[in-house]
Amino acid sequence: MTASFEWGADEFRAVGHQVVEMAARHLASLPDRPAFSPMPDDVVRLFESEGLPMSGAGVDAVLDDFAALVEPWPFGNGHPRFYAWVNPPPHPLGVLAELLAATMNPSVAGGNHAAVHVERQVVRWFTALAGLPSDAGGLLVSGGSTATLTGFAAARHRAAARAGIDVRRDGVQGRRFVLYQGAEGHGSARKAAELLGIGSANIRIVESDPQGRLRADTLDELIAADVRDGCVPVAVLASAGTVNTGAIDDLPAIADVCGRHGVWLHVDAAYGGPAVLLLDRYAQTREGLRRADSIALDPHKWLYVPVDAGLVLLRDPAVARDAFSLVPDYLRTDGDGPVWFSEYGFEQTRPFRALKVWMLLKHLGVDGYRSLIEHDLAVADRLAAQVEAADDLELLGRGLSVVCFRARPAGVEDLDALNRRVLSALQLGGEAFLSGTTVDGVFALRACVVNPRSTPADADAVVAAVRALSTLPQ
Ligand SMILES: Cc1ncc(COP(=O)(O)O)c(C=O)c1O
């Protein structure tokens, strides 16, 4: 087959219609399929054995391969009873926005083209929602992990400069840089600490109060002690919704402590950010959020934007520019538009992530998002209520749209083992998909509802499935 780069508009349209039809069928069929089914061994073997294609195949053959080998085995997060981790289904408009973004295919490193201005507008909308000053900034990144890495890199830069260290040139110079986070702080903070040369041993895990929130008084004491010992406090990671139980730290109290010690406050709102920004009941948390130096907030989580779309907001973008900017001669572009995004973060070529966020914000509006998030919270409430009403189930953790619980049928001693079996059977059985975690030392089934297609009846079905599996003979 000859390699053809040039497709006429008619050919693009014809293939495009086929692809849209496949996508529409996929999305529509998800509720009637198992929540998850693992890839069959024979299909895995096909992937492992097929060699690199040396000569190309026709488009129909490629689409047939997609239909036969890929589409039937999704991750599961389009299903109304997929409650694992924080992985919502994509809003359909977001799926189509991906097509348009790829059609334009810019690099949003910088320049004076539309994609740059779309991203600037998206960032401005979020800085305003978060109550940051009008000269705050930020950028879209791959997800919450990169958002936290970016915030920490800026924080490390500022802390090092204050300690008289040029960290970009000289590294950390044997000084002990320290970070602070709660017991439920996300694991991406640890990865970031390791990458930034801070070291995971230099993360202080601050004890939690009975609600799972980082204790601000303990944090205060730890920072004071570290300063006395000659350490360089870099940043505090506070959570506006932990992944484990949805716990929300007392941000105003933590902001007070950070302010007193001049330590950078990074808020991980990757999951909970949208609820905190939009719902009245989180107004007090919002008061703390607006005092953050950096915020991680993932549109690809509770804003239903297709992966990937993370966002880091920066109170003082100049610090991030100092930490990251590197403009070799071949990239110098004097006078063409705003400062390049690539000067504020690690990526050089950057995708047009902003389009799907921008389109969905325009389409749903703040009010639309508010009602979708309220819906998810109501389904989570229903699930928690059903758990509490059942005498063979135990509620272990509840925050935002997370419900952690376990089966506790009479007469079973090893509840951890039982619940691990229940989880595995549930995941492989296809009725629903939860994840597992540990809450206060015991194994828990964890449900996180971030799916507007999920109904109270789905929550009831999950509870029924767990109860049925927990009473099956071993
Ligand atoms: C609270 C929180 N922070 C950070 C992350 C990491 O985000 P990502 O997986 O997009 O890198 C997650 C992921 O679930 C999360 O829930």
Which key features would you list for this structure?
single chain; 474 residues; alpha/beta; Aspartate Aminotransferase, domain 2; 4-stranded antiparallel β-sheet; 11 strands; globular; binds pyridoxal-5'-phosphate
Descriptive notes:
This protein is α/β, with parallel strands linked by helices and 474 residues long. It has a domain at 106-351: 3-Layer(aba) Sandwich (Aspartate Aminotransferase, domain 2), CATH 3.40.640.10. It is built from 16 helices and 11 strands. It has helices at residues 9-29, 41-49, 59-70, 92-104, 114-129, 144-162, 167-170, 188-195, 216-228, 251-261, 273-278, 283-289, 317-324, 354-389, 415-429, 456-470, and strands spanning 137-141, 177-182, 203-206, 232-239, 264-268, 294-297, 310-314, 393-399, 402-407, 435-439, 442-448. The strands form 2 sheets. The protein has a 7-stranded mixed beta sheet, with helices on both faces. Strands 8-9-11-10 form a 4-stranded antiparallel beta sheet. Strand 4 (232-239), helix 10 and strand 5 (264-268) form a beta-alpha-beta unit. The radius of gyration is 24 Å and the shape is globular. The termini are far apart. The model has no long low-confidence stretch (mean pLDDT 96). The protein binds pyridoxal-5'-phosphate (PLP). Pyridoxal-5'-phosphate (PLP) binds next to helix 6. GO terms for molecular function: transaminase activity. InterPro entries: Aromatic_deC, PyrdxlP-dep_de-COase, PyrdxlP-dep_Trfase, PyrdxlP-dep_Trfase_major, PyrdxlP-dep_Trfase_small, Pyridoxal-P_BS. Its cofactor is pyridoxal 5'-phosphate.
